[in-house]
Amino acid sequence: MVQSDIEFTYCLTVEETNTLVANDVYSGQCDGDEDCVMLLMDGLLNFSKEFLPDQRGGRMDAPLVMSSRIDPSEIDDEAHNVDIVREYPKELYEASREMADPEAVEELIQIGEDTLGTDDEYHGFDHTHDTTDIAMGPDLSAYKTLGDMMEKMDAQLELARKLRAVDETDVAERVIEYHFLPDIIGNLRAFSRQETRCLDCGEKYRRMPLTGECRECGGRVNLTVHEGSVSKYVDTAIEVAERFDCRPYTKQRLKVLDQSLESIFEDDTNKQSGIADFM
Ligand SMILES: [Zn+2]
Questions:
Q1: Inter-residue contact 29 to 21 (CB < 8 Å)
Q2: Which pLDDT value is given to residue 147?
Q3: At 198, which helix (H) or strand (E)?
Q4: Distance (Å) from CA 275 to ligand 1 centroid
């Protein structure tokens, strides 16, 4: 259990059932397949705008709009990129032994996208393995059982090392380029354009009041984006780049980024210089 910096807010995991009843509100933890069902139930049975916090985060992930009709052309392509066959053909396994390029065997497996615009649109979706229980998957994913980001990275890259078809340097390169870099750059930008907010009443200020106190209630005014959320992954990213021998270009991008973080966050108020610094 982790207690947050806001009073009486808890983030907890209930062992075995993953279910909690508090103040007559029933809350079930779920992920993956269960999510869509639970979110729909929430929308139909349990949902009230009264439950939404009126402060930070408030409506961010709340299901406020319900669609009764889905237009396949309007939804994310990713959702159609799922195979809908009952079994994989022998040719697929044979091609995998030859280390064939995935694009070369594309037509062997039908995916959801293939049905779009045909008479069978969204029909005949099948699966390879049956289940009797929607909640049969792991109760806690590896994302939660593993510790910090470094541990998660290690687990993923360890898997990449074991798979003959996977080039682990390429995996490391992609994780850095598509996850770490955009995350750090985005957070750095957010840090420099952030608002400040009163911890007690939630009043927002575009600039920190000179007194440091809230003009509405006298409470403590604080940053909304913290240093930790900006620089938390930069060391991990640098270490991964070193360990997996990423391209010099990637390493240099990280180095430049690390320098800009340092120039913003390093406390340079009280630095004593020796005479040697001027020689
Ligand atoms: Zn206030």
A1: no
A2: 83
A3: strand 196-198
A4: 48
Give the Å distance between the CA of 217 and the centre of ligand 1. 4
Assign 1 a pLDDT band (cuts: 50, 70, 90).
very low
What letter represents residue 259's amino acid?
Q
Report pLDDT digits (tens) over 145-158.
888 877 888 898 89
Ligand 1 centroid distance, CA of 196 (Å): 11
CA distances from 211 to 9, 193, 215, 218, 219 (A): 28, 20, 9, 10, 11
* Residue 4 in this model has a pLDDT that exceeds 60: no
The secondary structure of 84-143 as a DSSP string is: --SS--HHHHHHHHTT--GGGGGGGS-BGGGGTTSTTTT-----SS--S-TT-S-SS-HH
Q: What is the distance in A from the centroid of ligand 1 to the CA of 9?
A: 19
How far apart are the CA of 207 and the centre of ligand 1, in A?
14
Q: How many angstroms separate the alpha carbon of residue 189 from the centre of ligand 1?
A: 26
Of 184, 160, 158, 155, give the one whose Cα is nearest residue 171: 160
* Integer Rg of the chain from CA: 25
Neighbouring residues of 179: CB distance < 8 A, sequence distance ≥ 6: none
Domain range summary for the chain, segments of one domain joined by +: 1-66, 75-132, 141-266
Q: How high is the pLDDT of residue 3?
A: 52
Half-sphere exposure of 143 (CA within 13 A, CB side): 4
What is the rounded average pLDDT of the residues 65-70? 81
In the DSSP assignment, the letter for residue 225 is: S
Enumerate residues with CB within 5 Å of ligand 1 (an ion).
198, 200-201, 203, 214, 216-217, 219
For residue 186, report the distance from its CA to the centre of ligand 1, in Å: 28
Mean pLDDT of 74-102: 90
